[in-house]
Amino acid sequence: MRLAAIDLGTNSVHMVIADVTGDGHIQVVDRVKETVRLGRGVFLTGRLRKSAMDLAVQSLVNFRRLLELRKVDRVRAVATSAVREARNGRAFINRIRRRTGIEAEIISGAEEARLIFLAARHALALENSPPCLLVDVGGGSVELVLARGGEALWMRSLKLGVARMTERFLGGDPPGAAQVRDMERHLAREIGDLLRDARKRKVVRAVGTSGTINTLVAMARSARGEESGRLHGASASAGEIARIRRKLLKSKLAERAELPGMDAKRADLMPAAAILAGFILRESGAKKLVACAWALREGVLLELAGLADRIAAGAARRHSVNALARKFDGTDPHGPQVARLALALFDKVAPALGLEPQCRELLEYAALLHDIGHRIDHDRHNRHSYYLITSADLLGFEPWEIEVIALASRGHRRQGARFDSPELLALPADKRRWSRGLAAILRVADALDRSHFGVVKDIILHLLPDRLAVDVDCGNEPADLELWTCQRRTELLAKLLNRPIVLRRVRRKSPQATASRREPSRSRPTAEVC
């Protein structure tokens, strides 16, 4: 189903067009944004300016053409803080309908918070998360949601948006110390109690779901010398946000626009964003700020598709991996077969490799995705798989998890990442060990389906002091190719285990035969020289 969501925000008008599947995967087809500043002056005068309305309507005329070209099935347009507070907001909505045929609706702050929470819960798999505080900072309002275990403990929409705060408090360029103090006193009166409640519930992180907040994370990454790339799931510590705050409050507008990681179109609003983010982190006790690429528009899409209450939050990880696999591998059974064999190996050798239980899921996803690079090129396809995995919009993962999945996939062939590669060295030591261990397992599992015919029915493993014995049950299928390839792919696993790997082919006796001799129903393998 092809759907579109339009967000008539205080600063910008956004539209996203996406194909939404029944399992909740959203594949963006088109995305467009126009900065119209609907909220400029509205919080002081109570009215939308004619020039801003003219620009917004013309943008929606163009959006309408795009909707028709993209053959969108359903569209929902929502207007937020600036429009809902303006005395002429309803007249503006009527003008949009007459000019474009788009039926925009003014949503309440509570509804805005709910839709943002739906999106973030799906995108970050919050159902297994410790208490966290969602923070969406628009131009006119701020939505705060305290979430625990995928449920919202409370939701609030407050008139604390960065355009509003800038107009009301931060008139200087740069803002003066007294202006900053006045804004922080106002924040303390408006949200101090909420943040103290968050601290009492031991919130460990704040999740930013808006452009201004995520710009702060991008600036922190630039300050660390990290390359620009996937922002979703990236984080900045409370200390880093405090340093960025000091820098922004010392800089004039032209200087702010040139800072690394800065979105120049937001430079005038970033002092207010930094003051707000720093205050929230300090008062709530959250140690870091995490960027979330999904927000109001994605929540609208989920609701429009009727998926908001049917898709479990934690399922986002598996759904997004499966969607990426289908996109490049179709219904090829090789990935699932390799995953099945890899998990059997993991269950036996994980402790010896120092792999934690959470690595099991990452290994399964690496196995499902390890061959997607074939769509680009056969030679060095594992490197293409790495690029596709790290560039994809995989939901619900920490950045390090995606990197481990990608490195394990890349390592399923000999041309995988070296132990001293920049990608590995960028990870903490334990994650480097996990990447190598998962890659070693994946090499063996992939070799055991070298023909892609699924001839290996089962593997029985015996981890002994002097070897890892792998009994390979192929039934009556010819498996010379699998066994030959596997013999050549065990080197890394043997090195990490510090013991050789011995393969042998076995055939399990059929249950009917054992039953006829009145033996226990469990079949026993019969060994054969490979």
What's the shape?
elongated
Our count of helices gives: 22
By secondary-structure content and strand pairing, the structural class works out as alpha/beta
- The overall average pLDDT, rounded, is 89
Query: How much helicity do the residues have?
Result: 40-55%
- Count of β-strands: 15
Task: Give the low-confidence spans.
Answer: 511-530
What Rg is obtained from the alpha carbons, in whole angstroms?
27 Å
Question: In angstroms, what separates the terminal alpha carbons?
Answer: 51 Å
Give the biggest sheet.
6 strands, mixed
Side by side, the strands of the main sheet go 8-7-6-9-11-10
Strand content: 15-25%
Give me some keywords for this one.
530 residues; alpha/beta; six-stranded mixed sheet; elongated; 22 helices
Structural write-up:
With about 525 residues, the protein is an alpha/beta fold. The longest helix is centred in the middle third of the chain and has 24 residues, at about 175-200. The protein has helices at about 40-45, 50-70, 80-85, 90-100, 110-125, 160-170, 175-200, 210-225, 240-250, 255, 270-285, 295-305, 315-330, 335-355, 360-370, 380-390, 400-410, 420-425, 430-445, 480-490, 490-495, 510-515, and strands at about 1-10, 10-20, 25-35, 75-80, 105, 130-135, 140-150, 150-160, 205-210, 235, 290, 460-465, 465-475, 500-510, 525-530. The protein has 22 helices and 15 strands. The chain is elongated and about 80 Å long. Helix content is about 50%, strand content about 20%. Strands 8-7-6-9-11-10 form a 6-stranded mixed beta sheet, sandwiched between helices. It has a 5-stranded mixed beta sheet with strand order 3-2-1-4-5, with helices on both faces. Strands 12-13-14-15 form a 4-stranded mixed beta sheet.
